[in-house]
Predict the 3D structure of the following.
Amino acid sequence: MPFARREVETLAQIIPDSTQLFDADFSPESTRRQLRSHSLIHLATHAVFMPGKPEDSFILFGNGDRLTLAGVRDWSLKNVDLVVLSACDTAVGEILGNGEEILGFGYLMQQGGARAAIASLWSVDDGGTQALMDIFYTMLKRPNITKAEALRQAQIALITGNYGALGTEGNRIARNITNRLPVTVTEYLDHPYYWAPFIMIGNGL
């Protein structure tokens, strides 16, 4: 995932007092220790949802450890306002043959106490996701804008290619998209594959 690190580094420039965890330092345990001191948790990584065996689904951490659905249930997120799961299939769940509903990672984060979660409905492109998240967080830091509205504005920006709503930051984002992403991505950012996978779960205010 070549754009995941850049996504996190860009986020840290936008959001003050950020803690960045990479490679071996990015583990389930080190992340769990941050839950009490941060109101926003952003995971830019790889995730797999296993149809037919949903309990084997996992989020992959930089040290190689996997966090399963059962592991997420042990997380206490009562101090967290927003969890962003910038990875594939993190909003996907499943209804088993016996009628039991297995919740996906995003829903479990909210169930664990987070007021809201942003998660994905399908396998996402990490370059397009970086562009979406850059716009989302730039909008979110503006006064009087809700999480849901920031996500909506980010989606609109990718659809239209117009970053004027971001003010001077719009020029930076436009340059980053042009200079950092391959043309095979930038030419198609208005396609739903790029702008539509992420949904808001819980309180979008």
Remarks:
- Strands lie at 40-44, 46-48, 58-60, 66-68, 82-86, 94-95, 101-102, 116-120, 198-202.
